[in-house]
Design goal:
By secondary structure, this protein is mostly helical. It has a domain at 6-84. The protein has 7 helices and no strands. It has helices at residues 6-12, 18-36, 44-62, 72-79, 84-101, 107-113, 129-140. Helix 3 crosses helix 4 (72-79). The chain is elongated.
Length: 149
């Protein structure tokens, strides 16, 4: 017995057209993903897994398999989808700009400005959201400081 919604069942059983399924994908899955990805710190492995999951869904949508040897770029063109990792990074930059515009007494802005006292643990430092955005800005030549200091 499945507890899926009627929309998910219709899409999974191929009772919808490709255009309808693309709309479901963009309206449901990407919106949910964007809501959840605001503070993600993506490592290379996680980026690869997200791209693989997206491509698996899009291939299934078009009725293609990996044995058809169709490039990811061609599949994205046919479905009108963008690279999910690029979308996440764009959304995170928008979120950062939004937080920086907030008043200083708002909690998200305070969390962004927070600098803990004391020492970090021994070993390689964990990658933080602020560090990730700072590295991306250095790669693009942008001189803005994401921490706002």
């Amino acid at each position: 017995m499945q507890s899926s919604t009627p929309i998910v069942l219709a899409v999974s059983q191929r009772r919808c057209t490709v255009n309808t399924t693309c709309c479901v994908y963009s309206n449901c899955l990407l919106i949910m993903n964007n809501y959840l990805c605001k503070a993600w710190v993506l490592k290379k492995r996680e980026e690869q897994r997200l791209e693989a999951a997206q491509m698996k869904f899009l291939r299934h949508l078009l009725g293609k398999t990996k044995l058809d040897k169709e490039r990811n770029q061609c599949i994205r063109q046919k479905t009108g989808a963008q690279n999910i990792v690029k979308e996440i990074k764009q959304y995170q930059k928008k979120w950062l700009q939004h937080v920086q515009r907030m008043d200083t007494d708002r909690l998200p802005n305070q969390a962004l400005q927070y600098k803990p006292k004391g020492r970090r643990n021994i070993g390689r430092p964990r990658k933080r959201w602020r560090d990730q955005l700072h590295l991306e800005d250095q790669g693009t030549g942008n001189t803005s400081n994401p921490s706002g200091t």
